[in-house]
Amino acid sequence: MRRLITVIMCVAVTAALTSGVAQARAVDPVAALAKQLKSGHGVHFESVSKTNPDYGVKTRSYGDLQFGRSQVAASNIITTVDYGSLTKLAEEVAKILGLDPDKFTGSTQTITLKDYYYVTGGLNDILLPEGKIWLKSKNFITRPGLGGSAIDVLSPRELKALLADVDGKKAGGVVDGVPTTLYYGSNVLRTTLFDIKISIKINWKLWIGDNDGLIRRVASNENLVLSIKPAKGAKPVAPVKMQLSSDTYLSDWGKKVWIYAPDDRLVADMLDQLTLPPAVLGTIDLGD
Questions:
Q1: Using an 8 Å Cβ cutoff, are 55 and 86 in contact?
Q2: What is the pLDDT of residues 26-39, one digit of tens each?
Q3: Which of 11, 17, 24, 253 is buried deepest, with most CB atoms within 10 A?
Q4: Who's near 76: CB < 8 A, 6+ residues apart?
Q5: Is the pTM higher than 0.85?
């Protein structure tokens, strides 16, 4: 009997100690993200986004994000587009404009800073004057970050809101060599812009490292509905529906990252280049 009691006590103590260790290892993902947000450090990402399965347009991007004290301060991203079933249409448009079809499918590079973003490659090149290789534009809507999704998981405030309203969680397997927990949920966003009602239903998943609390993968599926208010006396306009999805992997957390604007000598302002070059206009038949 004494031996049985001793065994039971040992098992109970071991269970208590094991539970204590497990609890000690639990990491708050919001706190873990906030700890990463310091100047000169960042993270690498690789992402695939798809638009409307009827067309099969797919965008691949990769690059580095530079953190500031409380948010993403800058991004440097390389992007390529596969137009799927719209490839032939893109090639025809290229012919009409007298352009190399590769301009539609070639990669673009975008550097986004606090106030401006810079882009080179792809269709942007047709707007460049001689001697310039970058277009510069004011950040009216864009901001540094992952892009490709309506949720900003690299914002501690938004990440906290997402995790406070999860539908569930389960073991997420190994991602980037790290055991993870998969969190999943859904949100609905509604807003109005220029008399256009915008509704976005988002189903999202986050794979978060068990030991360090850092996001290793984020996937989202978004159903976007645009409802346009018709002019007075006009017929109702059917809502525009679109599906967007993205799947992003994050790695090299804490790496040293410094992102700078291109040399001014190689930059043209986009506002000054919005009209098509004469060489392009000359290839378009405008009729009589």
A1: yes
A2: 689 999 999 999 99
A3: 253
A4: 63, 64, 66, 109, 110, 111, 259
A5: no
